[in-house]
Every structure is written in structure tokens, then in C-alpha cells.
Amino acid sequence: MGCFNEPNYSNTPEIFAPDVERYPVAASGGVGGGKRDSIVITIRFKDGDGNLGDDFPLPKADSLRYKSNGGWGNYRITTLRLVDGKYVEVPVKVNETLYFPNLTKGKPTGAIEGDLQFSQLFQYGNSTRLFPTKFRIQVRDRALNESNVIETDTLNLPFLR
Hints:
By secondary structure, the chain is mostly beta strands.
């Protein structure tokens, strides 16, 4: 028999260096069926009180609380593209307000750790040109404690404009 000692993590979430995978998706017929790249970003997290994520549908009070405290949900991803030697933010509409599910729903409170994955598609359009791109990531818990900010390595992605 052994005993499990609960980890002593901070109640402010902490995230770690992301892993990014890029998968080319062949063109197919129909709307949105053009050639595109799929990216999957995996981040590792730790949280001392396990209050990461939220319920769906999102309770109205939670939605208002997130909006009145920075206007973003519980997952923030910023797309950065290399332009004239500097990375600049490229607004991506689908990334404006992101949420991930309650990671401890129905479970006892306490320290948690694990992985979160986020995926997104990038369309090629009429060009096969690729742009150096990276992502800046941050999460926050239901108490609005914000994690550290991390960035992915650079990868080359298409941008449909």
C-alpha cells in the first residue's frame, strides 16, 4: 500500500512550453474544402485548486465576469505573423473569445495537472505562400487568476486574406 501526497501547486494556473503539430489537409469538394493546414497546440498545465475550465452552456454570470475582466474567455491565443522582421498580431475572429470545459466537473477539488489541446485550420486560398507564424497562449481559471504567457516556436502557415 502506498499513500498519495497531493502536489502543492499555486492557485494561479501555470502553463508550460507548448508542442505544436502541423498537418496538411488535402483539398476536397464543397465549401471550405480547399487545401489547408491543421495545427494542434498542446500545452501542459498545473493548478492548485482545480478550478480550470467552465460549464457549457456558459452560465450568464460567468460570461459577464469574463467579458468585464479583459473581454476574453478562459483560453487566450494570439496569432503572430512575421512582418518586416517583427512579429505582429494578426486578428483571427475565431480566437476572440475561447473557452475550454470544466476540467474537474463532478470531482473533488484539489490540485490538477494535465494537457490542453487546441486545433485550428488555416486556408491556402489562391496562393501556396506560407508565412512565419507563432502563437502566444494564456489561460485563466474561474477565479480569474491568469497564468503565465507562453509562445510556440515558429512554423510556416498560409493566411487567407
